[in-house]
Amino acid sequence: xxxxxxxxxxxxxxxxxxxxxxxxxxxxxxxxxxxxxxxxxxxxxxxxxxxxxxxxxxxxxxxxxxxxxxxxxxxxxxxxxxxxxxxxxxxxxxxxxxxxxxxxxxxxxxxxxxxxxxx
Length: 119
What we know:
mainly beta, 7-stranded mixed sheet
């Protein structure tokens, strides 16, 4: 079974930085997966903030462009999200997601989420 396990969520001050990680297991060809990070704040819909293809092409939501960087290490089956210049509106549960298909069409697999709080 595919498992995605996030780590790195924490409470941080406005303007600070955090790095989230997502360890993937049970995937035979991780480098072929589209991977991404989504977030959900209380009372709001889930929002995909960043996606990355197997060969490293990235897309970002306008709300995080220039502040967040998504990256992956295919040798370690690990996904990262470097977050900087954090704002209170970045407070949310952040989910790692993956899909064997192309990016831009949603994800089949999800992690359990990690809480990020900015104040």
